Amino acid sequence: MSSFLKYLEKKSKSSSVVIKGKKAIWFEEDTEPKMPSEFLDLYYGGATGGDYVVMSRSMAKELEERLKRLEEENKKLKERNDILKAVILGLAIIMITLMLWRGGL
Questions:
Q1: Are the CB atoms for 79 and 87 separated by under 8 Å?
Q2: φ, ψ for residue 47 (rounded to 5)?
Q3: In this predicted model, which residue has the larger pLDDT, 62 or 83?
Q4: What average pLDDT does the structure give for the chain?
Q5: pTM for the structure as a whole
Q6: Residue 13 contacts by C-beta under 8 Å, 6 or more apart in sequence?
Q7: Structural domain boundaries, residue 57
Q8: What does the angle CA 35 – CA 11 – CA 1 come to, to the nearest 5 degrees?
């Protein structure tokens, strides 16, 4: 038996299958891959002492580049958010001033 067939057999055992007429419906639990989260723990959390992640250099480099791009995007969005907060504060002050001025104070 080929390794692919063994793989399919193993995956099918972990899934529940419901057959309705000519249709087969199967349910499979979503499992999150552990490697990226462990890599993130090492990258950001500074995990040490027996915490090892084995991956290829290309994958590690790709993850590192993605993290850098996300950090840059996060920084830009934070700056935009700060500007929007200042605009909202300014508009609130203008509204309050106009309301007080119109009220005769």
A1: no
A2: -65, 135
A3: 83
A4: 77
A5: 0.45
A6: none
A7: 3-102
A8: 115
